[in-house]
Write the C-alpha cells for this entry.
Amino acid sequence: MIDPERGTRTRETTYIAITVNGTRWQGDAPVEEVLLDLLRSRIGLTGTKRGCESEVCGACTVLVDGAPISSCNYLAFEADGKAVTTVEGLARGDELHPLQEGFIRNVAAQCGYCTPGQLMAAKALLEENPTPSYGDIAHWLTGNICRCGCYPAIASAILEVVDETKA
Amino acid sequence: MLSPFRVLHPTTVAEASAELARLGDEAVVYAGGAELLLLMRNGLIKPDYLVNIKRIPELDGISVEDGEVRIGTAVTHRRMETDPVVRIRLPALTEAERHVGNIRVRNQGTLGGNLCFADPHADPGTALLVYDATVELWGPSGGRRLPLQQFLVGTYDTALEPGELLTEVRVPPLAEGWRAAFLRIERFYRPTANVAAAVSIKDGQLEGVRLAAGCVGPNAMRLLELEDQVRGSTITEAVALVRESKPYLTEKLEPVGDVLGSAPYKVHITSVLLTRALEQVVARARGTAHD
Ligand SMILES: Cc1cc2nc3c(=O)[nH]c(=O)nc-3n(C[C@H](O)[C@H](O)[C@H](O)COP(=O)(O)OP(=O)(O)OC[C@H]3O[C@@H](n4cnc5c(N)ncnc54)[C@H](O)[C@@H]3O)c2cc1C
Ligand code: FES
Ligand code: FES
C-alpha cells in the first residue's frame, strides 16, 4: 500500500478503547485487525473460536453492545467505545451463567467447539426475547452450526432456561 | 489475515464521493464489510483505501416523506427486519429481511451493500421490485434517481458509475387494497430461489399484479410479461397460467445449473413459489375484503 503523500509503504493503526467483559482495554489496533484476532492473540481470551472465517459457522460469535456479530469478519476498530462480551464474560466468578448450567445438564455439546458461539447467540436471543418458542430458537440459531449435531440438546437447554425465568 | 489498507471516514456524501473520485481504483466503499472483507481475505481484491460510509449520518435513517419510505443505504438488515414503519408499510420487505443470512450477517450487513454487491442470491431486491422501489445515487456529476430494476444490471453488476455512491432507497407503499408476499427456499444459508408478489382484487379478479423472481436469473427481475398475462384473471386461472409459464421463466431468467440445483429444477421451484405467493396474497386481500 502506497501513501500518496510520501510514496512509502505505511501501516495504519487506530487508538481504540473498548470494554471487554466489563474490563477496559485500550491500545493501538492495526485497521485491518479483526476483533477475533484482537481477542484471542492480544487480549488472550481464547474462548472465542475461529471456524470458517466467512460469517457462516458462528464459532466466533461475540456480542458488541449486546448484538451478536461474527468477530472473524468484523474490524476491531469498529468496537471502539463499545462493550464486547465473550464467553469468558458469562460466568460470575465461580457461578456459571444459567445458559452454561443448562448446556451442561442437557449435554448440549460433544466436541464443544461450537459451544462458545452457541452460548453467546443464545444469550443475545434471551436478552431480546426472554420467552422464545422452539421455532424462535431454531430461526435465531440457524447461523450457529454444530458439526456434532447437538441441536436438539441446545434447544432443550435454552428452553429450560426460559422455563426457569418464567417460574 | 487481511493485508493492510487505510480507512477514510468521511462525514458527508459529497466528501465520500470526492474521495472515491480522487482515489479511483485504489478505493472501495466500505459499509458493513460483510462481503467486502471476505473478498479481501480471499485476495480477490486488494484496495489501498476503504471509504467507510457508516459515519455519514444522513445515510443511516428510515423515514417517511411524500408518502414514500426512505431507507438510507447504511441501514442494516436487522434494523429493517425490526423497524415498525417497514413492518406496517412494506411487510414483504420485512419478510425478506427476516431470512437474510443469519443474525450476525443481519446485524452487520446493510441494504446498500446488498444491492451494490449484486450477488444474484439476494433477498431484499426481489421484495423491493414489487414495491416499485427507486434508488438515489450520488457521484462526481451530482445526483440521479433510477428505478431499482435499472440499477440491477447483472450478476455482481450495477449501474453505479466510478466514484458514485448509492445513498438511499425510496419505496412507495402499496395503494389501499393491495397485498404483498415474499417467499424463499434455501439449500445452504443463501437463497436458492425467491419470489415476491403483490396484487389487488376486484370482483374476484386480479386487477393489479406485480411479480418478481430472484436468484435464478443474473439479478432479481420483475416478470412483466407474466403479469400482463395474469392480470384480469381469477386466482384459479392465475395459478394455472403460472404453472404453464416455465418456458417463459426459462427464457426470461436464463437459469444455469449449479450446486443449488439444475436449471429445470430452479425454474420449477420458482413457478411453485409464485403460485404459493399468489395464493397467499389473494387470501390476505380477501381477508380484508370482508371488513
Ligand atoms: C454468510 C452470509 C450469508 C448471507 N446470506 C444472505 C441471504 O440469505 N440473503 C441476502 O440477500 N444476502 C445474504 N448475504 C449477503 C449480505 O447480506 C449482503 O451482501 C450484505 O448486506 C452486504 O452489506 P455490507 O454493508 O456488509 O456490504 P459491504 O461488504 O461493505 O460492501 C459490499 C459491496 O458493495 C459496495 N458498497 C457498499 N455500500 C455501497 C454504497 N452505498 N454505494 C456504493 N457501493 C457500495 C462495496 O464497495 C462492496 O463492493 C449473506 C452474506 C454472508 C456473508
Ligand atoms: S469463524 Fe466467524 S462465522 Fe465461522
Ligand atoms: S459440539 Fe461439536 S460442533 Fe457443536
